[in-house]
Amino acid sequence: MRSKGSNLFKYITLLIITSLMIGPLLWMISTSLKEPAKTFTQFLPNPLRWANYAEVLGNSTFLKQYWNSIYISILVTLLVLLFSSMAGYAFARIKFMGRNVIFLLLLSVLMIPAEVTIIPLFLFMRELGFINTHLPLILLPTFGASGAFGVFLMRQFFIMIPKELEEAAIMDGCSKFKIYWRIMLPLSVPALSTLTIFTFLANWDEFLYPLIFINSRELMTLPIGLSLFTDETGTAWHHLMSATTLATIPLLIIFFFAQKKFIEGMTAGSIK
Amino acid sequence: MLRHFTKGKKLSSKWSDNIAGWLFVSPMLIGFSIFMFGPLLYAFFISLNDWPLLGEETFIGMKNYESLANDPTFIKSLINTLLFSLGLVPFNIILAMFLASLLKNKFWGIGLFRTAIFVPVVTSLIVWSIVWKYLLASELGFINQMLALIGIEGPSWLLSVSTALPVVIFVSVLKNVGLNMILFLTAMQQVPVELYEASELDGASNFRKFRSVTLPLITPTVFLTMIITTIGAMKVFGQIYVMTRGGPVDSTKVLVYYIWETAFKHFDMGYASALAFVLFFILLAFTILSWIVRKRWVFYEE
Is the CB of A24 less than 8 angstroms away from the CB of B43? Predict the structure, then answer.
């Protein structure tokens, strides 16, 4: 029913818009393989200079920052998975005193912007001697928006699991912890994987906390390290673009392997 | 005897439920109390003080809040934040809705387009900003070289007062429009097909179908998305830090940037906390607004 003209219009419009989305990333990859003097003058790299990557990977500061980003994101994700599934299970399944009040309290964390609590947290961490350590970068997201969102997501999921599944265990006199660990947790793998992707991505991109709590380059995470990536001669774009390409790879790998989960997590995340 | 036994068992199981419940929520509850609720209250206390990072703090009551009115940089940063949001939100929502309606029905290559538009959402914001800063470089940047090919001399996008903020808005929209597009697509797919069939029988054009069928039914999602996007826009920081550092001449200095600068470059913790509370109340207003909209949404569907 649709005319050929409107189809053509649709394709052209979409091509223009998607080129604005993908173009910059292709340009990034292209530049990452150019020779230093040609970063602004070539469209496509010729010859391909793979040495850019070798040089960036040979830079021990960059490698340390890469490792910091990976291990902090993984650690935060694991802590969020554990603590928020525990809390989510209790809110969904155990009738305890003050349950509704505490749940509302935990949800209200989602309304407290990190930008507002950052100053007292800085003073607090300085008092404890945690400045220029990774502890704030691990603790604050776990017990912040990521954790609160996790509690909310896990509770919603546990509520939907039919009660019959745990009744047998209750009859056998299993403890609440055993029910959580042996029955509920294995059942919640779909929700846990959505939460994993969401938390990992949010922490990989975390900017404000590392900017404020970390001073030395070796302890920085990638977003801060990349934002300071200049040397005496100015910005070495061929190196910077290799570095940003390397920083983007883990995200794209996760995205392409778990696209559906990814989108579920993102949409759930913004409808919180 | 038996009755006693069951009663006793019930009581003890109630207590064991209480203990188990509290134990399960305690890690999160303790963590949130130490790292969120405590600091929020303490931030308000700090805002009532003259509080240099090094040196003695003195209680000055509401003086920090009073100085806000006479601080041209604060006014400027507030205006910039509003301009950023007023530019970003409508642009983002309209583009997302346009893309969602283009990508609603299956056609050849649809998966590729959907994925492509979503890719910036999963890219790091800092990487996205760095790459665009490079593309927008004054003389030799890719964008200006392309413009030169068709005889246009492009401006120094990020270095001139008139273009810096619009450019940052544009780059931010491209980064996140895919997320709103997915939200709209999800909403549009829930519109009953019969409504479209009925309007087709009436001979409605595509635009007419969108205006009279799709739009009214997805309005709740649109409202909610607008509020979430606005809240995000009011907190903008990373892309400003990377692309312009608040410049040129404060033309992109937004509220969070000013808070960061006041606290961690000028070390004026008291005043920075007062600034942070202004942001907090603005965001709180939007959050409450989103609750009201959500309530109406539920009502609407019933």
Answer: no
